[in-house]
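[agent] plan:
  1. take the single chain provided in the ticket
  2. run structure prediction with default settings
  3. attach structure tokens to the ticket
  4. add a short note for the reviewer (M.T.)
[agent] executing step 1
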Amino acid sequence: MIFVRNMLLVLGVAAFSTGFALAEKQRPLKSSPYDPDARAVELFSGQQAGEILAQVTPNGAAGGNLFLTNQTQEPLTVKMPAGFVGIPVNPQFIGLGQGNSPFGSNFGNQGPGMGLSSGMNSSMAANGTQAFGGGTGNQMSGMNGMNGMNMNGMNSGNSFPNGFFSIPAGKTLRVPYTSVCLNHGLNEPTSRTTVKLVPVEEYTEDPVLQTLISQVGTHPQQQHTLQAAIWHVANGMSWEQLARKSVGPVSVPGRTYFSQGQMTAARSIVKEIQSTLPAAEKTTIERPAAVAQQATRSIRSFNTSR
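[agent] step 2 finished; step 3 output follows
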């Protein structure tokens, strides 16, 4: 009897150790040194080729984490775009239930062939949840030859300069991102929101909005200022409306959502971007209320023309 109990104890310890080792193997990396010999792939190209699995966990509209999985048998260096857009959708439309994700069932599988042209329309969108736009930022080399990107006080220590992230074969890397809301008045995404990641150019044809979204990642210190500019351009909110916007549901004197300095800076940023555009493009963008429906496809109307 004692022998049987000992054998059961040994088997139990072995099973626990095996399970723990498997969990550790699947656990996302928080950092990964730059591999100069790894083949470089662009994020969305890698997704289309089935080499990269990009999964998104929002933490509200202001940011969250990307989980980039190298699905090949060789190390890869992923080149991140300057900006991207996250669109909340219903899980069944982007292939959940793969069974091999170490992150839980609330993550959207964005494997090959899952572009927006595959048929996602307004009926598939997650009702009442806002899209968000942002990026992982321009990287500056940090300690030990690794990236020291700082987002909201967190040092991710992920990779090398200029948005490159090296990922070993079969591994997943966690990459923090900074973002802003693209649909004023809708609910913020949560960690349980299933998100489809798309290129900025696929979400909007407005060059001003494209530039603003890309700047969210490259200039995270101006996140609040860029939010004001984006709501002006994407949602047709006037500068006066934005200046009066309160922090909470009840307007309290002196407690506005944007400071006077942020409003001044937002106007300046939009004006500066517009000044670089050809006259034909500027004339439509200078009337945000008139082009809000044309310039930005909101969640409820996104891709209906595709």
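[agent] step 4 note for reviewer: The longest helix spans residues 2-26.
[agent] ticket updated
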